Predict the structure of Nramp family divalent metal transporter.
Amino acid sequence: MPRRSLGGREKLRHARANLLDVSEDRANVTAQQLDGTLPFAADQGVQYRGVLGDVQEPPRGWKASLKYFGPGFLTSAAVVGSGELITATALGAQAGFVLLWIVLISTLVKVAIQVEIARWSISTGRASMEGYNDVPPKILGRSWISYIGILMFLQIIIGQGGVIGGAALALSMLAPVGGDPFSLASIGVWLGILIAIAIAVQITNKYSLIEGLATVMVAIVTLLVVFMVFGVQFTPFAWTAADLGEGLLFQIPLGTMGIALAMFGMTGVGAGEITAYSYWCVEKGYARFTGPNDGSDAWVTRARGWMSVMKKDAMLSWAIYTISTVAFYVLGAAILNPQGLVPSGTDMFDVLARIFTDTLGEWTRWIFLIGVALTLFKTAMANIPGFARQVANTLAIFGAFDWRDVNRRNLWLKALVVILPITWGIFYLFIQSPFLMIVLAGIGNAIFLMAIVVATWYLRTTQIGKRVADGKWFTVWLAISSLAVFAVGVLSLIDLF
């Protein structure tokens, strides 16, 4: 049943109570900032409450908005990695150009869901997992989606285990320990080194530096791959306009359904990135700058303004990871597919390296492996804080602690940034196939997206006011996105069983 909307006086009382409630959080956060023990987003306690005193008018236009971008860059850092490098290239190698359309559909359709969840966060000051928990029916006081969120912990472990394990495998191939690059000992040593670095960076609050360096690295890798796409034209593997046209016929050849479904789940923003983006928007300050909803026209204007900044941020992020995804797919289709090479198992990177060695020479293999290791490790690094928030918030929903208690929340986040990478590494050592792990996680991602779609429409119709909603064309886009996500989720289940 739709939530009863608050009257004007009730909204003002709620806003005043919220302001008083924040004072203790602000004092705690300020003290933590002075002694340097707040290792995550600055002023988190205030970020998740919304404060009248922090209201700020939104910038107008792209140029003025640039300084407020950030959540999308974090999303790009998390996205440009396993989905593009492994899944997109493998799909191109297996199916040729015929599935190019999935790349475009996969990256574009999910942005509407991402934007709508972020819109809800900006208007309420709450993060996505809390919104999912509002969706009926409730089971023992928690939403059915929250229980799916618990189950998705396994998907997080499997997928990110494949990512950080893939980085260790690439380094082992580059500099094997003990002679055999595919031995458990060599991969395990490199995995331990990467996990130690990840934990040290997260605990010591140097993530912003690493993120900046990683973003530059991703830009370099992406530019190199785009250069390769056009460089292929001067080799025997040149692609044509007819090849690209074939990829836009909306066909799925026999034998490619499983990897196509995984690609939909792992390329572009998946369930994890959509959920994390909400946290980044809150912590960036979009909700705090908007202020608590007092029902006034001024609040609506501010809210729509900051939502406009968020949409620009999201679309810029979409452009970055779509270019890289298309580039990787085309390389797989143009170079690997004609040779019958499909990356899988421990020889995955040897096969992927053929993209470079077959066009530029064997000397590029070591450059490729360094690029793979950095790209995948950067992806894992970018996902650690996002997944830590999702896991912690879910555990808080089930009563582990009070999410709005800054001290307790930071203790949980500190613990999780240690526990998560260690757990990912252990799972990789058991499975030892980054390709299989990432494909399985992609299918799980596609299924969880179905639940997020349900939450999106529930929150849109019950908690997002019409005055801050977008028009009919966005509604059409959101509807198409929702139908696509559900169709792929159903096909994932059919293909799985």
Q: What stands out?
A: The longest strand covers residues 138-139. Strands lie at 138-139, 142-143. Residues 222 and 329 are 12 Å apart (CA to CA). Confidence is low (pLDDT under 50) at residues 1-46.
